[in-house]
Protein 1
Amino acid sequence: MSSRTLPLLFINLGGEMLYILAQRLRAQNTPADKAKKVMNDIITTMFNKKFLEELFKPQELYSKKALRTVFDRLAHASIMRLNQASMDKLYDLMTMAFKYQVLLCPRPKDILLVSFNHMDAIKDFVKDTPNILSQVDETYQQLVEMYTPLSSGEFQLIRQTLLIFFQDMHIRVSIFLKDKVQNSNGRFVLPTCGPVPHGTQVPGLIRLFSCTGEEVTRLQFNNGGNYTAALREGSFETFGDRVTKLGTNMYSVSRPVETHMSGTSKNSAQHTKINTAPNPLAKEELNLLAKLMGGLEIQKLGNADSGFRVNLFATDEEEEEALITRPDELSYGVINIQATKDQQANAELAKIMGEFTESGDQSPSASSKGDDLLAMMDGL
Amino acid sequence: MYHKEKSIQIKNSASALYNNLSVLRIAPRRLTYFTVVHANVVNMVSASWDGLNYSHRQLQSKEPNVATSTSLIMQVAFCVLPSRDLLVVTSQKGIQIYESDGSIMVYWHALDTSDAPTAQAVFARGISAVWDNYICVGVSSGAILVFDVPSKGSNITLSEVLEEHKEPITDIASECSGSQECIADLVSADDGGNLCVWKSGKEFQLLNKIPGFDMSCSSVKLWKGIVVAGYGTGQIHLFEAVTGILHAEVNAHARWIYSLDIAPFSGLLLSAAEDSLVRVWHLTVTPETNSVEVAHLHNECVTDTQICGAKFCDGDGYAFAVTGYDLSEIIRYTQL
């Protein structure tokens, strides 16, 4: 569908990831300098120039599996380590949060305001680090250039593409349940009250006109809800009041992040055929983004000894429990490259990954690199 | 005025696409077919009128080239012609036409993706049968493909390409009153809210162009010479097709309208939107005084659901069916 969806999906999911990690780092009493390093490293990787260039190219949306791989890499772009269960939970929270924001956006165009809310928060995280800040500022420019000229219909197509990506996801999120924005069956509450979107009138009026254009009758009808007039429009520039709260940080020290796994199995019983249909070229989904992301990660391996673990659960026992009890249909099936398995494979992989680092300035011809990588994966 | 009946369960949930429900009533067999799109799959249900038998079928958008990514379906609609009923499926890759029970594909038309600028999405959307033998399908470039359909067999041919719209087609509808007096028999709508009114024939004739107001018109209907158009702003406008005169403006919904339908024998209008509401209206068209009246009759709220399809199940509007995003059922309502 829309070929402009991926940047918005990535930036918003990335933003949610940062909110969650920031909260967990605080909850675990991580020393301030370490926490800051984690956030800075992840944001630097997220806004890597080459990576963003690839991201912003017009392309179809990645599969859930492929996108999850990208975020796995991103989460590990720092000295922080996450276990499988914590990574699963992190991804659940990120995706459900963004699904909520997309659904609740009054107008499709407001997804851009949600993206700006995430960007504004990211900018705030790195405001003391000029070199990362400039990367973030450049991304603002790219977003404004790419998205502000789009029509309402094009934004709706982007929204519809995102909704297909999020189809049938009903994971219950504790913070949403508490705030009563999600029902116990995992579906979000869609209120029939509140302000109408900018550009829409409060429903309830029928106007009839004569052939000469004069209004001849006005009729009112009961709209079945409790709507109020639209609020002012948010700013679509690189700064300004976005007006909407969607996309702002809903976590704080006192509001922990939890998901409920039980009770979701019966709802997700009818999983879609798209994810389970055998695709002979599934490995091709180890796409350029994931490769780029992985390439950036390899650089950090030298710091492994200073790594520390972040837990998305309250205790280690809970984390273990979550891994065991996670329903099958909710597993993401992440594609892992175990680069350490084979000496020769490792060297090849490292060489290819090396091509994508900042120091290298050649733009790789995707096809031959892809073949090498695929051949290697077959051998693993 | 209406009460809820037993829902029909479908195999997958409905995707958020405009006009995502199509209904075909087969009186001689006392059956009704329903189709709902889920990503790249069409869910078809055949429901017997006594409510005892349901059978399901799924159609996938087939690609000639397996290696490429899946082709998402934009819309599915039944096309009723005097000689035969067909099922048309429009996707990112092209147009497929099946026999109405989905059993055999009789025609496949691939979309030409070569001359579209890379950032523009390519897809087909907007389906309508018109006159005795035409099926019209819209394309993201704004073009409308006119297919000539023989009374039987698979010798369907592309008869004409209408190039009037500049923005992606959203919906197409034909005159449904059955009246022979209406000059215009087709209306097409696009993402800019522009409407084109046509007369069908060996060469289609453009009768009128009604400009939009930079807001997508997601659903359109044509009845007794009146165009009924639903917009992303939640408004419904009624225009006289041939002259473009605006007869009525309704602040109908609080969110984007996704579906409109008309019951031609009674003049009932159905509108459904992302705001969870389905509304029933009554249209009165008096040609002698050239006046149009709209009255609001009824609301149904499908709690916590963004509705994506709503259709009457019969020509009088005695019953209607509704689909919603992420919902794996077709909800039905009948008059009390």
Protein 2
Amino acid sequence: MALRSANSSGIIRRSYLYGARSMSSWWRNVEPAPKDPILGVTEAFLADPSPHKVNVGVGAYRDDEGKPVVLECVREAERRIAGNLNMEYLPMGGSVNMIDKTLKLAYGENSDLIKDKRIAAVQALSGTGACRVFAEFQKRFSPDSQIYIPVPTWSNHHNIWRDARVPQRTFHYYHPETKGLDFASLMDDVKNAPSGSFFLLHACAHNPTGVDPTEEQWKEISYQFKVKGHFAFFDMAYQGFASGDPEKDAKSIRIFLEDGHLIGCSQSYAKNMGLYGQRVGCLSLVCEDEKQAVAVKSQLQQIGRPMYSNPPVHGALLVSTILGEPDLKKLWLKEVKGMADRIIGMRTSLRENLENLGSPLSWEHITNQIGMFCYSGMTPEQVDRLTNDFHIYMTRNGRISMAGVTTGNVGYLANAINEVTKSA
Amino acid sequence: MEATADRRIATLARHLEASSLSYSQINNTISSSPTSSNSSVFAHLARAPEDPILGVTVAFNKDSSPSKLNLGVGAYRTEEGKPLVLNVVRQAEKLLVNDSSRNKEYIPIVGLADFNKLSAKLILGANSPAIQENRVATVQCLSGTGSLRVGAEFLARHYHQRTVYITQPTWGNHPKVFALAGLAVSTYRYYDPTTRGLNFQGLLEDLGSAPSGAIVLLHACAHNPTGVDPTLAQWEQMRQLIRSKGLLPFFDSAYQGFASGSLDRDAEPVRMFVADGGECLVAQSYAKNMGLYGERVGALSIVCKAADVASRVESQLKLVIRPMYSSPPIHGASIVATILKDRNMYHQWTIELKEMAERIISMRQQLFNALKSRGTPGDWSHIIKQIGMFTFTGLNSKQVAFMTKEYHIYMTSDGRISMAGLSSRTVPHLADAIHAAVTRVV
């Protein structure tokens, strides 16, 4: 019996007989991964026992009591679909019904592009999934291209294009001094980028800054894109949520479409329909003609198939139901406006509170910025003080999720911000 | 056509009015640019071929014949040929709809915690030492495909060996899932066309000559597409070989409970490997056994040597998931968790699951009998020996094409039929088609 032998053949025989117990883990070199900078904030918040704690971290809407909201139109849609349908696989490209209605939101109810079937579109796993499928598609069919990403942007954008192995470049966007748009540098970057570059643009309610170009600025950007032959990829995660009017929030896209750009677009229903966890979205690419759109769609499906085969049905069904039934659609538009209005109200309130406290700094940007987020201009150290001294949770880039601000906590929040910034 | 031209002219006119620069000025500047807005950066694309499996349903839907039969995709059908939502699933859905405290917030990147725990218990067994010792990292994923892909991406980043061995043949999507994750794909012999059973000798030889540490994809039960499973004795031999060579097992479990009718029995091979204390990966799907196909519910479990390893592994899995889709969908996993955690509902589920498995077993018997009674040439006993949703008939692609054209039978060209798509009513039609194909087409 070589069981107790210390030599290598003995060890092999021993493991053969006893199974794998004697071997060490394949994963002993696996490092613990850093926490996600955004989602880690909520984890820390949940762990905090303080009764004063405020979560203005992750971008999920809260009502004025600080509670998550399921829209009434969604609850009603759930009731209408419950028990009626089966759970068969959707086609690889997702729900055609949902896609049709979703394209109308972005491209316009009477869009020629839709009528002419020039848009290749697939249902995606919310905004993240749409961006990722596009990034993989970009890698496959424009392998020499890079993606120009605004500074700053949602942190996961970098992860998405990195994992798709598309090299990244940045372009100027946020102007820290004015807490607004650095338009001149942005235009320089657009002009200096090699012709035919791929750009990631936030259609509205820029995340994390809340700073959007004006209509005039969008027109100039679009013109310059035409001159340079750049490709515009719009990430639209907040349509309806920014101004309260979905048509208005799609203005940047419509400007580009009018100028004849063949854009790409990621749409998400996470925020504007409150369908976060359902993971419903859409990726679309404008093509030259119907034949090309068919080809492009088929290739997009080839990317989804080895990732998840086909997208989840439930959320898509909710969207189709809400957008397809006039009473529900009307209700949705009303509720989306309600959410946007509450946020705009909180912006006004936060700014007024800070001004009334006699803060030496300017807080104009709170009401100039739009959408769920406010880029406060606070430093990471100031944010740490907010968390450690006041139990206020936000991402260290100073981004405040206005959706987490309520009439109940705006005073406390303003006071805390004033405390940590008054000696700045 | 005319309406389109009119609209285009109208758009152009609007453009000419609104723009501060004249259209011709813009046109002149951009005509020399390599990628003007008139041409797409993706103009060079070819249309991708239809997916070989899902494409079958596309073709089936286009056929207007009243006798058409869809034996392509592996989705369960009732005796009436209808999709089935389990009663216990409808019950769970009702509970969820009526629970006004539920919201639709993002769930964690790794999915619902109770879903993950219950899924691990389901496949590994409630008393699994690996679970009790906290050595299992489980993450909710998008059904089997998603679980495989996330596992493959994790291995490509953190595992020292870059080759995965898959059975010959295997589910059509397997090679792409692993290749796109950055792994090299090799095959090991599995199906023996002459016996229509397992080529066990070839399997042992191929795994025996695999490089140490290579990843091995194993179908936990109800092999897709062949329906040929190793016996428990053969599994034990495979386990010893795999462990002696330090190969890393990656189980694809898409049919637990669906194969034999017993959840525990179908999980035996997986539990055998976990019992020896070694590491492995398991991809679980609830598409078939809970009928949740389109909801995309599944889980990836990585069984590790130690609890702290499992914890680090889980943290790294999050980094794979976040840039793919941020977090998994809530609906299907909520249904599963509701059922698995309630004793009565769980019991109800096992009953409905057994009924589905038994209907399929009965279809196998009926098809076998029908071919025998027609005197169809050949040995058709593999139909009743194979297990699970699929039968690898042994028909070649010419015979399949013939059956589609003449008898409106839709199936994949490798000769695989989904028994779930058969009913007592349609068995005779299929038997006629097979008989004709075998006697007229070679």
Protein 3
Amino acid sequence: MNSSGGKGSMSTASSSAAWKAVDSVPDQFPAGLRVLVVDDDPTCLIILEKMLRTCSYEVTKCNRAETALATLRENKNGFDIVISDVHMPDMDGFKLLEHIGLEMDLPVIMMSADDGKHVVMKGVTHGACDYLIKPVRMEALKNIWQHVIRKRKNGWKDLEQSGSVEEGDRQQKQSEDAEYSSSANEGNWKSSKKRKDDDDETEDRDDTSTLKKPRVVWSVELHQQFVAAVNQLGIDKAVPKKILELMNVPGLTRENVASHLQKYRLYLRRLSGVSPHANNLNNSFMNPQDETFGPLSSVNGLDLQALAAGGQLPAQCLATLQAAALGRSTAKSSIPMPLVDQRNIFSFENPKLRFGEGQQQLMNNNKQVNLLHGIPTTMEPKQLTTSQSIGNINMQVASHGVQSSQNNSSLINMQVAPHGVQSSQNNSALMQMGQPQFAHAPRLPLSVGQPIISNGVAANVSTQNGIRENIRAPGYNPVPQTSSMLNFPMNHASELPGNSFPLGSTPGMSGCISKGTFQEDFNSEIKGSVGFMPSYDIFNDLNQHKPQSWELQNVGMTFDDSRHSNSLQGNLDLSQSVLVQQGFSSGQMSGQNRNAALVSKAMLSAGDSTEPGNPLNASQHLNSLPVDNTIRVKTESVADVTDNLFIDHFGQEDLMSALLKQQQGIAPAENEFDFDGYSLDNIQQDQINGIIRTDE
Amino acid sequence: MRRQLAIMRQSLFDQGYLDEQFIELEELQDDANPNFVEEVVTLYFRDSARLILNIQQALERKPFDFNKLDGYMHQFKGSSSSIGANKVKAESTLFREYCRSANAEGCLRAFQQLKKEYATLRKKLEAYFQLARQTGPLETASRPK
């Protein structure tokens, strides 16, 4: 790729600053718009580049999707819009789309010589903001800036209304006390506190200094409030207005609730589809977990803890889940991680990061792990499919429709309230998050079907790519169709042994491990390895996950941990709003998840065949990671993970050791889900799941 | 010579070898990139030769993998349309239809035809650019009638 020739370095701060505020568009706008073009056809690429330059845009071209993702990750705010071809050899354009949506939340325009209705529709469902038919003409390119503005505008609106925290604030959220109350908002908003009062959009924007559009961040608490409200009203009668009233959160709008509800509903549907169990866990999320966990044979507390995606899973839920899981003890073994084939957008931070695979793919998936977190962004079923097969982490974990706005692809199906996560796509990321995490799977089809098995993150990461690793964490419900099997090289361990995640089999469950525990534990270790998020990149092969999508903002998803912290950071860029990968990062997955995640990571990396053996271990570790349930959706962490993942495949060895350590200390998920969204402590699975995005 | 060039150019349009997309390319040419069109076209022929070869090889393996063939052709078509290679594009569309209906015979025939058109276009454009280089910068592009 050549960097944009025009202004020199990409991400010109000035231009970004210029666009920060929607209403203060600089005069020369849209000149200087920073575009990333991805197309494997060199002829088209060069023509597009020239056309865009002629429009006075800053152009960077890529002929490979993975490169594009890597570039995007490296320069989080370096681009304003992405134009991508649909048919590419290394990764399906839609998967890339999901990843980007999840991780970076940038507007993406799809292109193709194909003008068939179904393809265009696919673009729509995956969240593309436009679709161009080749040959592309100049006129079509001249107006692409509108998408940037539009997105920003929408984001700002959300920001104002809900006081969503921007990426930067995410960290605050991590502390999981990100209450959404007004005071909290202020607290959370580093910069925009005062904005809210003034309701001054502009100021807000400036403060937040982020180009990305802010979204409502569904922190664990907020989500819990939401769930409580829904339960109180009865899922059938729960209408946004009433929910909003019950929740009584200042700054939250009916629209926020409505979209969140939608995702939640999808998630639930998914959960019920996955596991017959009724939710009896307290949180509505929990219930799903049960079900999902069902197969997870031994959803030992670990998983549950981990699952407690984003802290959503209260301890008791975990217990319940675990019990359920144990009761089930069905052979999870083949929990095919239905890792969200779709892009499981694991919003979880974890998921993505966890996959130490550093594979981009994983990351992709991770992204998708948006699952569980908070606001499942556009929960499009598609989204769930982890584009990266990695995402197939059947993170049983809350299969929230982790679809974070837009790219919820491979949502780690966190068992927790499967919000639309999986939608059709392979929610592989079934993160068995104890909590129904709304996986905001922004299009991250986290195929993480990893059921966040409490025990071993049996993340059945079924990456679509065929790596159907059923990471079966004990107790993980095999995530439905983990179509996106994570390519975890770890496919071996199909069954995570009891508590220890048979990560061996479960490929890279590491995706979604709830960050809760992960974070801590993994951080150190997983860093490299787990980084599911990044590992989603591993899915390069898998093509599915949107790596990095794990920016799971899912709070809590353990990505906060070590692993993610590093890599997550990178990914955190994902939808800032979206709690990334909800819960995936929950380190909850006591170690197991992590393992899973790692595994997934590994698997993901498998694409690169990274440490194949290791992943398993990693997964193990993941599982054992004491899921703190502080799934902090750390975008940052996710980002870190991503980076880590990518880069190095996560030193599997490191991961492994980390995991092993984790295992020992599988701390009971403290349920302090950090997630801002859903701290899937059990995100380990998620992570793995995240990684295992199911391909579509 | 300019006139000669203009006539040659016009005939390419009139005969359907090129379409408006070519004009788009011409419009992109400027002082900074005075040979932009030629560069792109050269790149196209180089890259598409590879695709043609792939298709050729795929057609030598029986039974035909129509999906794969369709995939290659899709790429080829995309490329060709981006430079305005009209006839070539039409042949690729035909080929794809045969693929979709799993018509092996049709595919072979269409491919032969496509190769012919491709070779013809190449020759014509080579001649055109050669003349253009001799003539100097091209005048404003004019749309074909």
